[in-house]
Amino acid sequence: MNAQELTGTARTLVAGDKGLLAMDESIPTCNKRFARLGIPQTEEARRAYRELIVTTPGLGECISGAILYDKTIRQRKKDGTPFVQVITDAGIIPGIKVDTGAKDMAGHPGEKITEGLEGLRGRLVEYSQRGARFAKWRAVIAVGDLLPSRGCIEANAHALARYAALCQEAGLVPVVEPEVLMDGGHTLKRCCEVTEEVLRTVFNQLYTQRVTLEGIILKPNMVLPGLTCPKQAAVDEVADATVRCLLRAVPAAVPGIAFLSGGQSGELASARLNAMNLRFKSRRPWALAFSFARAIQQPALEIWQGKEAHVLAAQQALVHRARCNRAARRGEYNAAMEGT
Prior knowledge:
CATH superfamily: Aldolase class I
Strand content: 5-15%
Helix content: 40-55%
Largest sheet: 8 strands, parallel
């Protein structure tokens, strides 16, 4: 492990006003999104969509890193150019999702444990050789009347920390993603309590596993009321609750926090990130960035619909959403941008 290189890469991923583009959807997830829009669920359609994304002109002006899937990191453009080369040439750092998914947790009804530690050391070496410079592992935490349990939180935190240690051993920056899910009727206050408990547990485990905090990126949820909660929070309320929670639980050594969108609309995700950067500009020790998937991709996917003739318009929609989030990092996003 070269701590200086890890720290340098982590800082680059959240430098300036850029963020991460998550394009690491599994094949089943990608197929579901295609099916809703009538796009053929074929390997070639998935490859063509990925090519649309990585060849989008100007994407590197807003995106610092792209999180790929195992299949995607091996794919090429129609002309044979590897996707990793296209991404790198655009000034974007290639990354890779390395967990194998969240599975039902034994003895814990309604809760999940993320798997993928077996054989991870060898896979990380291969991904590094293919050009990846960072990795991602996602844990999911459900909120309910009796959830989450301490067993679920601790097991997922331990797995995240072991993954992070293995990444740093291989010279890859770990993106640590503990996601408190939006599903349910819980309040903003309840989400804040659970998120703080989860983050404190994760960082305790990172310390225990001797992970260098200066060489990681945290990818948490924003603090939000559940989707079915009768009282939804205003943009500024979400911003205040989220940053205050993070200030209590995230060490200043962490270079950056790149939020997941978690099912939020692109406009809401941008507005909430903007409010955080605007209201807490001088009161936070880490960069507040984005690591969105659907909140950047969805408009482009809806325009593309699997048709070659729609590629340019879809790319324009993709880079527009990326630019909106770049503006949100500066605290300069506003709703008027959505009409441009």
